[in-house]
Amino acid sequence: MAPGESADGQALRRRRKAAAFRQQARQLVQQADTLERSAERWSRGLAGELTVGAQLELLRPHGYEVLHDVRWPGRQRANIDHVAIGPPGVLVVDAKNWSGSVTIRDGVLRQSGFRRTREIAAAKRAAEDVAAELPLPSALHVI
């Protein structure tokens, strides 16, 4: 063995291990950043739900029962933001805290120009699932 060969091998192994740790650290930072962005979206959603919930509470004196954060029938981990039960019927509300302009153009809901058909379909499914739980006439109409 040449002089310093074992020390050179040890240094190389440690540099490789340090590089692997740095790569893991970069991946962990990326995961932490992703989680932070997700948490921020949930916080914005919370703000929207609180705003809508406060407005729906104003319906109570007009004969409404208002429920918030209701378990979505038939789903383990999903919830329905708000359900208002009153004289005209049952309203299922999916609150969104969107920025930008919200418009309906050519019969399509758009937020900042983006079609929101997936969100509309989800709200309709929520209403249908709530309706299926209620003892209502078969002529139920979900809008």
In short:
By secondary structure, the chain is of the alpha+beta class. The protein has helices spanning 5-57, 117-133, and strands spanning 65-71, 79-86, 89-93, 102-105, 108-111, 114-115. It is elongated.
List the helices and strands and how they pair.
Layout: H1 5-57, E1 65-71, E2 79-86, E3 89-93, E4 102-105, E5 108-111, E6 114-115, H2 117-133
Antiparallel strand pairs: 1-2, 2-3, 4-5, 5-6
Using brief descriptors, characterize the structure shown.
6 strands, alpha+beta, three-stranded antiparallel β-sheet, elongated, single chain, 143 residues, 2 helices
General description of the model:
The strands form 2 sheets. A 3-stranded antiparallel β-sheet has the order 1-2-3, sandwiched between helices. It has a 3-stranded antiparallel β-sheet with strand order 4-5-6, with helices on one face. The chain starts with a helix and ends in a 10-residue tail after the last helix. The model has no long low-confidence stretch (mean pLDDT 89). The chain is of the alpha+beta class. It is elongated. Strand 4 (102-105) and strand 5 (108-111) form a beta hairpin. The chain is built from 2 helices and 6 strands, in the order αββββββα.
Ranges with pLDDT <50 over ≥5 residues? none
Helical run tally: 2
Beta-strand content estimate: 15-25%
Could you tell me the mean pLDDT? 89
What is the global morphology?
elongated
N-to-C series of helices and strands: HEEEEEEH
Sheet with the most strands: spatial strand order: 1-2-3
